[in-house]
Automatic annotation (TrEMBL):
This is Claudin 10. Coiled coil: none annotated. GO terms for molecular function: structural molecule activity. It is a multi-pass membrane protein. Residues 28-65, 271-292 are annotated as: Disordered.
Length: 292
């Protein structure tokens, strides 16, 4: 381009002209204000999470953690109850002679499911085992059978509880472990009911003889073993109920695992259509004045 007055070309402007026009084999820059051609296969950025276009996902549920904690608490309760029930069986003081209406007590009579004893004022005890099992009263035989059943059911419940708990690595899948935990809960509930029935039956016999005015033999009061048995039975029943509810919590958590991610947004559908159909629009050619 000639300079003013017919002079030679202005240095600098002639050097920029080839760069602005573009050398052969190099891409030409787009004009100002025009959109670049869309390249096939380039995906548009999706909306950030939490926006209107992005699907909303539910927050993670705290069901499995709460279920594991509940199972641990239930296991501790049931084991404590089973230990109390097991310690009730050999305990001596199921019934103790009453001191109601006596002025001077020279001896104390006490008995359990296996023997009857007497302790004098000097502290010496003399015990006598029951001579024949078949010659015993019916309530004593029933109490023996119920207490032995309670101890056996509690033992199997403890084994099933260890296998069915989620914090252990044995037992199979979560659904199988939930069924085993429910079975452990049923065993502990039956154990608690057996112990509760045995202690209640023995206590009923003691109270009926105590308040019977026509009963002239030695009267007794409730011993410490009955209260221990009631406490252990209550713990076994409460822990067994919690174990039984673990199968329902496991089924609810399995249903919550399949979350609905929402329908496909408009932006994502347009992006898929744009990516599937290649852009066949010819490239736009601009005049040289657009680059100056």
């Amino acid at each position: 381009m000639p300079g003013p007055g017919g002079a030679g070309p202005v240095p600098g402007r002639c050097r920029e002209l080839p760069v602005l026009i573009g050398l052969p084999g190099r891409p030409r820059p787009a004009a100002l204000g025009s959109a670049p051609p869309a390249a096939a296969g380039i995906q548009r950025p999706r909306a950030p999470p939490g926006s209107a276009a992005a699907p909303r996902r539910p927050p993670p549920a705290a069901g499995p953690m709460a279920s594991t904690s509940a199972e641990i608490i239930a296991f501790l309760l049931t084991i404590s109850g089973w230990v109390l029930v097991s310690s009730t069986l050999p305990t001596d003081y199921w019934k103790v002679s009453t001191i109601d209406g006596t002025v001077i007590t020279t001896a104390t009579f006490w008995a359990n499911l296996w023997k009857t004893c007497v302790t004098d004022s000097t502290g010496v005890s003399n015990c006598k085992d029951f001579p024949s099992m078949l010659a015993l009263d019916g309530y004593i035989q029933a109490c023996r059978g119920l207490m032995i059943s309670a101890v056996c059911l509690g033992f199997f419940g403890a084994v099933f509880g260890l296998v069915g708990m989620k914090c252990t690595k044995i037992g199979g899948s979560d659904q199988t472990k939930a069924k085993i935990a429910c079975l452990a809960g049923l065993n502990f509930i039956l154990s608690g009911l057996c112990s509760m029935t045995s202690c209640s039956l023995y206590a009923n016999r003691i109270t009926s003889e105590f308040f019977d005015p026509s009963f002239v033999a030695q009267k007794y009061e409730l011993g410490a073993a009955l209260f221990i048995g009631w406490a252990g039975a209550s713990l076994c029943i409460i822990g067994g109920i919690i174990f039984c509810f673990s199968i329902a919590e496991n089924s609810n958590s399995a249903r919550r695992g399949y979350a609905y991610n929402g329908a496909t947004s408009v932006m994502s559908s347009r992006t898929k259509v744009h990516n599937s159909v290649p852009d066949k629009t010819p490239p736009k050619h601009f005049d040289k004045n657009a680059y100056v």
